[in-house]
């Protein structure tokens, strides 16, 4: 079977003595897609043990080469747009839209990236911090009243509320239909791109049309009455490129949609992993809590209030920063990258990388490299301490946000939201895992515990915390 596949694609490769990477293509047409979708982590682990850190396979209708490790990701990132070009599944391209930065390539991608970055520059992030803190406190109080909860589904509501508030000044809590429509759209991103009445893809396309119509209404309102709130939509409507050109309404709509999924789904995954790992490692939770107390970020009994979070106070939380880095290393929200199409045949690791094939890099496995990380499967925030900084040993050995010219545009936004959430959570609350649940990770489309992380949740009991509890009841 392997020989037949090799012959089929031989016309795409130049003549030479370089061999293809080891591996196999599997069945005709479907290749190894079924095995991969059944258990991506096991699929990669088995093939890495058998073939090494570079191997060939056949996924989603395409001959594919998998890259694992810092050397491979460095080769890929440094050759982005020269030898490799971003490519997406048909469902992604349709549902994100032709104007989305997620599907743009070459110079068009770079020009659009500069314009969109204005929504995530430091000045904008400073404005977002207050809203994130207020929304976080609101949800913490909500979970305290609930007592027990499935955290993943609750965190999806929390991150979507923040994204909608900061991106388009809409609260999903007051518009439940918007939340339902968005959910239908996002569920179709990895669906089979065949449209017939009632299919997941068809429902997602219809949901996209509804969302775009809603954003279109917002744009028309903004053009008639300027908004005093500097949300992402307002920033994108005002931004200009170097020649003074503004984004079209179609570009604005497609990219607001793209930002919603990027600023919501991945953050939900990351925060869920944070809560799970801290529950499983109480010594880390205690160390992070001790840092908060040492820095003086506790309730003032005399004033009856907590200090508001500022950019400066967040910078002082160095151990918490290490914790968040380790969460993203050991449980990255996205375990594999988007695919890259090989623009011209090249060589890596002594193997031929044929033109016309796809390449993608594995984030999870790259983060488990024993040559970089000591005991890589152990949750150890100290590996990011200034005297260790294991991730600095090799460029691109730590890639939760990708790398190169396509590194996640909202990286600093995600880090800000994670840090605000974590600081308020560990400072004032306690939680424990409920028994009898499956905590194994499901990694597609985004990493999460199988049963959604069921917990008991309550406010910490201490002399000062009682005062805070009374203040919240009265307030």
Strand order of the largest sheet: 1-2-8-5-3
The main pleated sheet reads as:
5 strands, mixed
Which CATH first-tier class of the domain at 2-97 and 334-384 would you pick? Alpha Beta
What integer value in Å does the Rg equal? 23 Å
Number of strands: 12
Mean pLDDT level: 87
Quaternary organisation: single chain
Q: How helix-rich are the residues, as a percent range?
A: 40-55%
Q: Which runs of at least 5 residues are low in confidence (pLDDT < 50)?
A: 1-13, 299-304, 463-475
Report strand %. 5-15%
- The 3D shape can be described as globular
CATH architecture of the domain at 2-97 and 334-384: 2-Layer Sandwich
The SS-based structural class is alpha+beta
CATH topology of the domain at 2-97 and 334-384: Uridine Diphospho-n-acetylenolpyruvylglucosamine Reductase, domain 2
Through-space gap between termini = 69 Å
Total of DSSP H or I helical runs spanning 4+ residues: 19
Describe this structure in words.
This protein has a domain at 2-97 and 334-384: Uridine Diphospho-n-acetylenolpyruvylglucosamine Reductase, domain 2. The protein has a 5-stranded mixed sheet. Strands 4-12-9 form a 3-stranded antiparallel sheet. 50% of the residues lie in helices and 10% in strands. The protein has helices spanning 2-9, 33-38, 40-51, 70-78, 90-96, 106-117, 122-146, 151-168, 176-187, 200-224, 232-238, 249-262, 265-280, 282-294, 311-315, 318-330, 363-366, 411-428, 463-474; strands at 54-59, 62-67, 84-86, 148-150, 340-342, 346-348, 351-353, 358-361, 429-433, 441-442, 448-449, 454-459. With 475 residues, it is an alpha+beta fold. A hairpin with a 2-residue loop joins strand 6 and strand 7.
């Amino acid at each position: 079977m392997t020989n037949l596949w090799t012959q089929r694609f031989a016309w795409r490769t130049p003549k030479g003595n370089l061999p293809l990477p080891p591996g196999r293509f599997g069945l005709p047409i479907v290749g190894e897609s079924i095995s991969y979708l059944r258990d991506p982590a096991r699929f990669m682990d088995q093939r890495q043990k058998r073939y090494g850190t570079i191997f060939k396979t056949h996924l989603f209708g395409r001959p594919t080469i998998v890259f694992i490790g810092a050397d491979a990701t460095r080769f890929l990132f440094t050759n982005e747009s020269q030898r490799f070009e971003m490519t997406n599944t048909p469902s992604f391209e349709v549902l994100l839209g032709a104007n989305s930065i997620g599907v743009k390539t070459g110079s068009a991608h770079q020009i659009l990236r500069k314009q969109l970055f204005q929504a995530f520059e430091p000045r904008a992030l400073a404005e977002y911090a207050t809203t994130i803190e207020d929304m976080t406190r609101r949800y913490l109080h909500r979970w305290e009243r609930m007592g027990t909860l499935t955290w993943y589904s609750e965190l999806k509501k929390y991150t979507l509320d923040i994204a909608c508030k900061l991106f388009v000044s809409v609260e999903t809590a007051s518009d439940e239909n918007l939340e339902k429509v968005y959910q239908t759209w996002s569920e179709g991103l990895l669906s089979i791109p065949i449209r017939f009445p009632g299919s997941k893809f068809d429902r997602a396309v219809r949901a996209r049309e509804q969302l775009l119509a809603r954003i279109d209404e917002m744009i028309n309102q903004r053009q008639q009455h300027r908004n005093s709130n500097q949300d992402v939509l307002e920033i994108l409507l005002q931004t200009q490129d170097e020649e003074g050109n503004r984004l079209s309404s179609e570009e604005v709509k497609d990219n607001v949609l793209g930002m919603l999924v990027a600023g919501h789904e991945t953050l939900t995954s990351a925060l869920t992993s944070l809560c799970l790992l801290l529950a499983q490692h109480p010594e880390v939770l205690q160390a992070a809590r001790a840092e908060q107390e040492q820095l003086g970020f506790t309730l003032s009994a005399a004033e009856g209030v907590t200090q508001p979070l500022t950019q400066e106070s967040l910078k002082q939380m160095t151990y918490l920063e290490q914790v968040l880095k380790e969460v993203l290393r050991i449980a990255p929200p996205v375990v594999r990258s988007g695919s890259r199409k090989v623009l011209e045949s090249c060589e890596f690791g002594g193997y031929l990388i044929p033109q016309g094939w796809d390449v993608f890099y594995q984030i999870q496995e790259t983060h488990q490299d024993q040559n970089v990380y000591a005991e890589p499967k152990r949750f150890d925030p100290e590996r990011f301490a200034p005297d260790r900084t294991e991730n600095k040993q090799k460029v691109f050995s730590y890639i939760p946000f990708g790398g190169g010219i396509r590194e996640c545009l909202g990286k600093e936004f995600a880090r800000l939201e994670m840090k605000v959430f974590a600081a308020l959570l560990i400072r004032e609350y306690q939680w424990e895992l409920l028994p009898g649940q499956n905590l194994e990770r499901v990694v597609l489309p985004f990493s999460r515990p199988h049963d959604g992380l069921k917990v008991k949740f309550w406010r910490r009991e201490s002399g000062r915390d009682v005062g805070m509890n009374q203040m919240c009841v009265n307030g």
